[in-house]
Amino acid sequence: MEKFRFLTSGESHGKCLTAIIEGVPSGVDIDIDFINAELKRRQEGYGRGDRMKIEDDKIEILSGVRHGKSIGSPIALMVKNNDFQNWQKVMSVFPEDYTDEKSFTTYRPGHADYAGSVKYNQTDLRNILERSSARKTAIEVAVGAVAKLILKTLGVEGSSTVTQIGSACCPDRFHQEIDTAKENGDSIGGKFVVVYKNLPVGLGSHVHWDRGIDGRIAQAVMSIPAIKVVEIGTNPLGMCGSQYHDEFKVENGEVCRVTNNAGGIEGGMTNGEDLVVSAVMKPIPTMLKPLNSIDNKTNEQSQAHYERSDACAVESCAVVAESRVAWVLVNEILLKYGGDSIEELKKHI
Amino acid sequence: MEKFRFLTSGESHGKCLTAIIEGVPSGVDIDIDFINAELKRRQEGYGRGDRMKIEDDKIEILSGVRHGKSIGSPIALMVKNNDFQNWQKVMSVFPEDYTDEKSFTTYRPGHADYAGSVKYNQTDLRNILERSSARKTAIEVAVGAVAKLILKTLGVEGSSTVTQIGSACCPDRFHQEIDTAKENGDSIGGKFVVVYKNLPVGLGSHVHWDRGIDGRIAQAVMSIPAIKVVEIGTNPLGMCGSQYHDEFKVENGEVCRVTNNAGGIEGGMTNGEDLVVSAVMKPIPTMLKPLNSIDNKTNEQSQAHYERSDACAVESCAVVAESRVAWVLVNEILLKYGGDSIEELKKHI
Amino acid sequence: MEKFRFLTSGESHGKCLTAIIEGVPSGVDIDIDFINAELKRRQEGYGRGDRMKIEDDKIEILSGVRHGKSIGSPIALMVKNNDFQNWQKVMSVFPEDYTDEKSFTTYRPGHADYAGSVKYNQTDLRNILERSSARKTAIEVAVGAVAKLILKTLGVEGSSTVTQIGSACCPDRFHQEIDTAKENGDSIGGKFVVVYKNLPVGLGSHVHWDRGIDGRIAQAVMSIPAIKVVEIGTNPLGMCGSQYHDEFKVENGEVCRVTNNAGGIEGGMTNGEDLVVSAVMKPIPTMLKPLNSIDNKTNEQSQAHYERSDACAVESCAVVAESRVAWVLVNEILLKYGGDSIEELKKHI
Amino acid sequence: MEKFRFLTSGESHGKCLTAIIEGVPSGVDIDIDFINAELKRRQEGYGRGDRMKIEDDKIEILSGVRHGKSIGSPIALMVKNNDFQNWQKVMSVFPEDYTDEKSFTTYRPGHADYAGSVKYNQTDLRNILERSSARKTAIEVAVGAVAKLILKTLGVEGSSTVTQIGSACCPDRFHQEIDTAKENGDSIGGKFVVVYKNLPVGLGSHVHWDRGIDGRIAQAVMSIPAIKVVEIGTNPLGMCGSQYHDEFKVENGEVCRVTNNAGGIEGGMTNGEDLVVSAVMKPIPTMLKPLNSIDNKTNEQSQAHYERSDACAVESCAVVAESRVAWVLVNEILLKYGGDSIEELKKHI
C-alpha cells in the first residue's frame, strides 16, 4: 500500500472538486495560503481563455488538519466551482432535474469522448467530458501543494519552466506563437521542464521494475491530460556513451558529478543530483477551427463541438507536472524513511 | 490489486532468474517454444557482446501449468544461468563461501552502483550491480511472453522496430553506427517503436489519474534499464492542433480515424487505433573507453570498471519494451473484462 | 489495484465526514433515500446515547452522479456534522483559532488514545480520538450503501441480526441486559451475524492467500472499532469432520448442500450457499464508571475521561459490518466479472 | 505498495513450491537452518499422516542472498517435492504427457473443489485441489521464517500453542481426542493461540480502516485453509466494560496495563502489550469415512474421494498462523520505520 495515497473527484461544471489524502505525517504545517498560491499558478499563463477569471480557485480543508497542523488523519480538500449556479440543473445529482440541455453527441478528436462513451456506455458525451476535463487538475495541484509542504520541511524544492511553445524555443517568442495560434482559431502545445533539488540519494530502487522512481515519475507525468512525451534528463538520442554518462568527482569531500545528463536518476534511483523531468504537451484539442467528427446518434459526419477557448496551456500543465512529481517524491520518501510524524521523519533523514 | 501481477528475482551471475505470475486465467495454452523464441529475440541484435552466446536462455516452467494449459494457479518460471559453475563461490548464498574475488568498489557512471550502495549500505558494488544488470530483463521477457500468449488468444498482436541508432535514422546505416562505436571503445543508443494492433476500445480510464493506460505504459517502459524518453504516438512538438488531432470518419460502418497521431490513446484510454509507443535508450554505460569515477573505499579518483562489452542493445531493449507493454495490456484487459478462464474472458470481449 | 476502492475522512466533531469512491460502474441508480435509510439504521438501536438525536445523518453527493445515475467518475459523499457550530473553534483548521478547551490528556483504556498519541507524537489526545471515534463509521455505511445498490442490481441482498447481548442469547432479554449495564454505569457488548444471499459461485480464490474472500471479509469486519472476534459460518470448535462438513445433493437439477456450516465459503471462495459471517463486539470502552489510567503530561494516575454515553452499540455495529461486507463483495464481483457499466456487468454475470 | 510483499507458487504434487519475496532490507542474516527448522515444525504434530515422512522439506535459496546476507534484491525460495518422480506424468507441464490417471470428478465437501471448478472452468478437479491443498503452506512458512529473521534482529519473538483439540481443552487429553477421531475414520479440529512479544507501540493505525493491524492480521489468519474463527485477545462475549478493558498503570516508570484482554491491539494499533491472536481450525475435510457428494460429469450422487489421511493438523496450522502474523508485523514495521538496510532500520526503531 502506498504511504501517500489519495483519491480525487469532481466534474468540470459540478458543484466542487474534492480530494482525500491519506498518509500525511502528523505535525506538518498546512499553509492554506501556499495551497491557494499553487492553485493560482495553475490558472495563470498566457493563452488561457476566459474561464480562468470565473474559476479563481480557493481551497477549503474539511478534515485532517487542526489548528494549522496535520494530525495524521486523512486530509479532505475541496475547491468549489464558482459558476455552479449556472449549471445546477445540467449537473444535478437528482433524477428529477433531468434535462438534455448542454448534452452533446459529437466526439471531439483528441479527447476522451469516443473511448469513454464506448467504455461507460454513455450517449450524452457530457457524462464523459465533465470528468476528462483538465479542470480536475486543480484539485490535483492542491494535493501536490500538500506534498510540497512536506518536501519543504525536508529542504526539497521544486520548480518548472516552459522551454518551448509551438516551434519557438526562445521565451521571448512564446507569446507570438500563442497569438498566432489564437488568430488562426488554432491551438499550440509545447515543452517544459520540472526540476527538484536537494533530494536524498536512493529514492526508488533497482531491485524490481515497479520500484523504479523513473517509472513512477513517468506514470505521474504521462497521465496528465495532453502529455504525450516524458523525458528524464538530457535526451540521449544521438549521443555516444562517452559523451552522455555523468563522470564522478569529489568536491568538498562529497561525491558528485561533472554533468547531469541522467537527470538525477540512475538505476531507477535518485543519485543526489537535481531531478530533471521534461514533457511535451500536445496542442489543446478544442479549437475554434472545428475538426471533422461523427455524431454518435446518427453515425454521420459532424463537426467537433467547441467548449473551451484556451489557445495554449503549457504553463499551467507544467505546474500540474510539478505537483505530480511532488506526489511521487513524498511517497518515496515516506516509503524509504517511514515516520508517522514529521518530527520522526526528520530524525530518520 | 492488479489482476496480472508478478514478481521476478535473480542476479546476473546467480544460479537462475525466476518469476511468479499470479492472475493468468485458466485454459491458456502455454506454448514453451513461443516463450523460448521470445527469449531468443531478446538475445539477438547486432552489437551484442560475447555473453549472449553463453546465455542461450531456456525457460523452465515450475508450476501453474498442467499438460500444456494454465490452471489458474500462479505460474513459476525459471531461466537457469548456464555459466553459474564459474560463479558458484562468488555468488554463493552461504556465508562459508565468502570471497572478495570479483568484488569491486569503483562506481560506474550511468549505473545503479552509487545510489544503490548508499541506499542498501553496501561496500562491495557487486551486491548492487548483480541485480541492476539488464540480465534481469530475460525473465521479464518470459513474463511478457506469457502475457502475449493471452493477448494472442484475443487476437491482439504486438511488434517492435528500431527506428534510430546513434544518429542514423536509416536502417541500412545502423550496423555502421554500431561498428564505429565499437571501434572507438564507445557505446551507442537509439530509438524504437512498439506497436500493438487490434486492441479493444476503452482499456484504461479518464476518471482517475492512476487508471490512465498512458501512465501505466509510460511506467512500464521508462523503468526499463537505460530508457530515458517515452513517447506515445507522434511527438506533437511544433505541431498545431489542426495538424495533430485525429479526425473521425466512418469506414465500412465503423468509426475510425483519418490519422493516428495520438498513438491509439485519448483520455488515458485505448481508442481502437493501433497503440504506438516509442522510447529512447541511452548508450550502454559500460564501455571499453573508461569513465572517470571514484573508489568508494578510498574516496579517490578511479576508473570505472569494465564488465560487459555490448556496444549497442537497442534491438534487445525493444523486445523488453514490447514485453512490458504486454503486461500492462493484459492487466487492463483482465480488469475491464474479468474472466477467470480464457473461455469466459473471450465471451466477455 | 482494487476495482471498488475508496478513502474516507473526517473527525467526530469536525465539519463533516467525506468519502470518495472510485470504481463504481456507470449506470447504477444512486438512490439517495436508500443511502439515508442505511445511515438511519446505523444510528438506531436500543442503548445508544443522546448524541444520536443530534446526528440525524443525511448524505450529500458532491460528484460522480448525474441525474440519478453513476457516470463512472469517482463519487464523493459528505455527511455534515449538525453540531459543528458548537465545535468550530475547538476543531478549527486555522492556527489562529487555537484553544486548549476540550483538550485532554488521560488515556482511555480500550481506545486508540495511548498508541495513537505515541505513534503520531501528540499530547492532546483529542487529535487521536476525533478520528478513532466510531463516528467515522457513518460515512463507511454510506459507502456500503452505494455498494449495496450495485449488489441489488445483481439480485444480491444482505441483512444482519443481533444474536447475543451481554450474556443474553434470547432477543427478549436484550433490553434488560442493556438497561442493567446502563444502571451500573457500565457497558455491554454482544454478537451479531451478517448474511448475504444469492451470491455467484467463485468470488475470491484458492490460488493465493490474499485472494481468499474469507481473509478479505475478516479484514473488513475485524477492523471495525470494537470488533475482536470474526467467525465464518458455524464455529467448528468441538465438532468432528463428519458432523461439520456440508454434504452435496442435487435439488431441482442444481448442485447444493444439505447443511451450510461453512457459511458459504470453501477454499477461500463463495460456494453458492448463503454467506454467513458473525462477529463479537467488545463492550464500549467509554463508561460512566471510570477506569484507572495515566495522565500523559504528569505520568501520574488519573481517571479515564467520559465523552460518550452509549451503553451498547451492537445493533449499530452490525449495520457497519453489513456495509463492509458489501464493499468486499462488490470489489470481488467487479474483479471477477469486469464491466465498466452496470449493463455490461449484468451481461457478464 | 506493501514493503514486504511476496508471491508463492506450486501444486501439492508438482515439481516444487516457490516464493519470491520483495522488500527484505539488506544485511539480514538469512539463516538457512532456522528456515529448515520452521519447515520441520510445520510438518510435525500428532495426528499427521504418512505423507509427512516423504515430505521432509528443505529450503533452497535461489537469489537475493549473498554469502549469508540479504542484499536488498528479491529473495527466491524453493522447496522441492521429494515425491515428484512418482507424479511426473500426472503433473507434467507438457501437453504430450497428458493422462487422466489420478484425475477425479467428485467434489469433496469442505474443499475448494466445487467452487474452484466452476470458477476456473475445470472438469478434472485435480486442477483445483493441487493448489488448494494445505501443502502450499510449506512455502508460506518459509516466507514467514524470513520475516521472523527480520523480527529477531529487532528483538521481536513469536510462539504458538494449541489450546483445544476437539472438545478437549486440556493438553494431556489431546492425543486421545485425535486417536478417537482416527479410529472412527473421522477428523478433528481445534484452537490455538499465537503470541508475539516486544512489539513497538503504534504498528497499524486508527486513521483508515485498511491500516488497522487487527484487520490485516485477521486477513492473514482467516485465509489459512481450514481456519473459520479469528479472535484478538480475550473473547469479550458476556463481559461488561468494567471487566474487559485494560486499565493503565505505571511500572518502573513505564506506562503499562493491569490486564491484556485487548490482546495488544487498541484502535487498530499495537499498544506495547503482547500481541495475542487465537484461531479455530475446522476438522480436516478429507476423511476415511466418506461424505456424500456429486460427480461433476454425471451430476449424480457419489462419495467424496480420499486423498490424505491426517486426522488432525492443528499444531501444524498454528505454525502457519505464526508465520503469517510475522508477515504482517514485518510489513507494518517497514511501513512505519522505513529503512532499506537492517542497520538503518535498527537506528530508526
Notes on the structure:
- The structure is a homotetramer of 349-residue chains.
- With 349 residues, the first copy, chain A, is α+β, with helices and mostly antiparallel strands.
- Chain A has a single domain (5-348), classed as Chorismate synthase, AroC fold.
- Helices cover 30% and strands 21% of the residues of chain A.
- Chain A has helices at residues 32-43, 51-55, 113-119, 126-132, 137-153, 174-183, 213-222, 241-244, 314-337, 342-348, and strands spanning 5-9, 16-22, 59-63, 65-66, 69-70, 75-80, 157-165, 190-197, 227-232, 248-251, 254-257, 265-266, 269-270, 275-281, 292-294, 301-303.
- In chain A, the strands form six sheets. Chain A has a four-stranded antiparallel beta sheet with strand order 1-2-6-3, with helices on one face.
- The longest helix of chain A is centred in the C-terminal third of the chain and has 24 residues, at 314-337.
- Chain A starts with a strand and ends with a helix.
- The mean pLDDT of chain A is 95.
- Chains A and B meet through helix 3, helix 4, helix 7, strand 9 and helix 8 of A and helix 3, helix 4, helix 7, strand 9 and helix 8 of B.
- Strand 9 (227-232) of chain A pairs antiparallel with strand 9 (227-232) of chain B, so a sheet runs across the interface.
